[in-house]
Amino acid sequence: MEWGTSWGSAPKPIPNLLTIPEKAMNYILNFENVDKGSLALVGGKNASLGEMIKAGIRVPPGFAVTTDSYLIFITEAGKKDEIFHILSDVDPEDMESLNNVSAEVQALIKSASISDTVQTAIGEGYFQLCERCVAESVPGAVRSSATAEDLPTASFAGQQDTYLWVEGADQVIKNVQKCWASLFTPRAISYRIKNNFPHEKVLISVGVQKMVNSRAAGVMFTLHPTDGDPSKVVIEGSWGLGETVVSGSVNPDKFVVDKVVMEISERTISAKHIECVYDIEKGEVVHADIEPDMQRKCCLEDPEIKELVKIARKIEKHYGCAMDIEWAIDKDFLFPESVFIVQARPETVWSQRKKESVIGKKSGYQLLMEQAMKRIKISG
Amino acid sequence: MAEEKAARFPDPHEFQVPSELEGWEEMYPSHYLFSKERGEWESGQFWYQDKIHAPEPMPPLDLLFQEAWQISLSQYTTRVFCIPPAQGIAQRMVGPYMYICAVAPPPDEVIGEKAQLFEKRVFYVFEHYNELWDKWLTKFKALGKEMEAIEVPKELPKFVPEDQVLPAPTGYYVSYDILESFNNLVNQMFKGWQYHFEMLNLTYLAYLMFGDVCRKLFTGISESAIGKMVAGAYVSMFRPEEELCQLSRLATSLSGVADILKSEGMADQKIAELGKSEDGKKWLEAFDKAKDPWFYVSCGSGWFHYEGSWINSLDIPYSYIKSYVERLEKGETIERSLDEVDKERDKTVAKYRELIQSDEDRDAFNNAYNTVRTIYRYAEDHLFWVEHWFHTIWFAKIREFGSLLVDNGMINEVDDIFMFNRYEIPELLTEIATGWALGVDIPVRGDYYKAKVDKRRKILKAASEWNPIPALGVPPEEVAEPFTIMLWGVTTDKVKEWLKGMGEVSVEDVSELKGFASSAGVVEGTARVLKRLKEIVDLKEGEIMVCPTTNPSWAPVFTKIKAAVTDIGGLTSHAAIVCREYGVPSVTGTGVATSIIKTGDIIKVDGETGVVTIVKRAG
């Protein structure tokens, strides 16, 4: 399965709404029901989650608000034409104009009303999620998943927003709307213009995924990000939600593991001074100070590290390329069911490079030894 | 604090040994002493204690093995196979402890010259490796048999036997025989050691190459991962243990034999009991068959006369058999599973190979790997034949000379002969031959020699209570000589640690040691520190063994311990190899484990990161 090539194909043309019967619309799709073939409908992030579920990786449950829903939303009441008109003569170098235009478009989107059909669909999706989790209301992570995002050759990461600990159908809908709006941040607008990506061609899907009640979370690469060494898995983690590691606001603990012999060859414990946690009183996710005696405590146990590496290997094998993965350890579950994968995408830096010889230039003596060794007749 | 105090080790000419060791110099030949004639050169070298071959104070006669390998190992590198960038390894005595240094590379022109010769000579050896190995084994076994055939006169007779005079006088008699026999013995030992390195240096080169390639392809790959990829070669060194296993199995199938072998009591008692029944006699026959050569195993490293061997310390193999029989009756498997080791190796190699991305690199990996697989077995096989089998024969012969000297009043005990070096013993033998020749009641200088023995034993005992300094001289910026790193496990980092230790960090302050991650696994347990080989009887099941270095001849011990930590030893040290073969987690080459850790301490051994943590101090 050539994952790489399927990513590389051009985005599908925008469907003509007038010709699609309403019954055939996919407003929402559960993650279990999507895969890489659903890219156009659910975007990269969500399609990836579906692929992982198929591969038997433990992923928090959720659903995607499809690009169709978005398309309906911006097509209704002529919003689309208005938006693209505003964007049509923006100078990407003019910061002030960019900011103004972005603010205008975002406000437009956030304030617009959403049709009943779409709202009902989202509400239905959320309700089903709560049922699955046997809870009255499930805190969710509402994440953008653009169709152009996560393409291996275009690192859009961080262009659009994520909203954490969103509870209740109304809040979910509101944050989905915010994600739609985030397609038009100044950065996103300027990036597309600079890279000749037509605004109309970028559709957005939004994922709604059960929050992991993270004891610890972070990222991992299925190669060494420093030198591209393919024999290693490098894990970085800290207390609380993974955002502190992803955003770089904390010095994480670091583990380098040889994935062939499953040996932890390096362990660096850092002073982790803050964590991202849900504050019940404030009703939102905050950056909280970590107690001094927890700061230098290792955030992962060895079995968890090894389980993460096992999962990383599985993901890498499934995708057939080096991967950049977000993980979290859920306090509400017992090991190993506590180990979750929140996101996975192909690694972009080393995979681009030409497959050159790592050994490189050899000394005269090494060449001599090589010649000598070629003389050996292989024994059984 | 301690860090800045010392940036160098003491100069070998200025370093003082404790006063209790006074007079130690006379035990060893003069070229072993730091000397003003070679002063400048000596001061500029980096000398470190050789804990692999000489972890204990050196009895004078036992030094001859070291003399022999100094020449042999070095010459193959410098004069025979001409390995371009390397030279030999020099030795010196500091008190009764031996220090070594890797001689710096030769000048560039010489390297160039050597490269040409290397090409011709080494290519040939690699090409014909398997047949050369067979030839080697044949000629080495013949040499051992030759040594075994040496006749040591049992006594100096009152009158020479009739048949040496009539019908015609032989022309030379026991006075000559004893000198010739001893000379032959020594010559054969040197010859054996010349043979020893014939293929060993090249084996290490191949291993180094493979290690090099792996480290370039997979930065930070552990020693134990590399070791897994060359594991499982059939090695003679493990054959003695296999024979014990077979004998143990045989015992359980013969009536009454297992019970006798499981009983408490000494080996000779059991042998006497077994001799009383048919099945017992059958078993004893099987034991005798296995004995030569497989029980010509030193109870230790093979380097010291006092270690004993299985054939003259039968209690040792009998005690191993006792525990095997007990385990068999419990339904346990006693053999190492070579199959598992093979499968693990093939799987590991395939996985690493899969990760290689360029064809060029894959070729380099495959070539290096195939070479190592083909010739690596020599590294372990030779150990049995030389250090164990050959040395066992030597010790037995020397003891025959010891008996002769006792009977002629020169020394008190047979083993006292080992208190004299190989240059001195001909003196003693000449004196008794002379005394015999001169006539009846001729006095010999027995008291003089007996007093020397006393003094030297005292010096060696005092030395065993002294912790010698880890190194002398000028530390290198970077340790590059491959044997130093691979075999002795002395790296640039290790040297820096030793330097730090020069600032007198107290033992109690250290709670973590770093070494080579030689065999995977993480365990916690009680430490048993063994500084002397004979202390191994104190080792309890499930303890973590902490020692200067370990030996394949301790094979049965490895099924007992939870983990192993050593002072010295790198990737190809026997310590690391044995641990991997037995799946025992280990950290080797810590430099200071036996000084820092105390018996009874609870320690955690991480064979994956190479870290040993003292969790709780004893008492």
Brief synopsis:
The complex is a heterodimer of chains A (380) and B (619). By secondary structure, chain A is of the alpha+beta class.
Q: Classify the fold: give the CATH topology of the largest domain in chain A.
A: Dna Ligase, domain 1
Tell me the strand percentage band of chain A. Answer: 15-25%
Major beta-sheet overview of chain A = 6 strands, antiparallel
Structural class of chain B: alpha+beta
Broad CATH class of the largest domain in chain A: Alpha Beta
Overall shape of chain A: it is: globular
Strand order of the largest sheet of chain A: 9-8-7-6-12-13
- For the record, the count of structural domains of chain B works out to 3
The tally of structural domains of chain A comes to 2
CATH superfamily of the largest domain in chain A: ATP-grasp fold, A domain
Order of helices and strands of chain A: HEHEHHHHEEHHEEEHEEEEHHEEH
Low-confidence stretches of chain A: 1-14, 16-21, 149-159
Assembly classification: heterodimer
DSSP strand tally of chain A: 13
Our measurement of the CA-to-CA distance between the termini of chain B, rounded to an integer number of angstroms, reads 29 Å
User: Level of helix content of chain A?
Assistant: 25-40%
Number of helices, counting only DSSP H or I runs of 4 residues or more of chain A: 12
Cα-atom radius of gyration of chain B? 26 Å
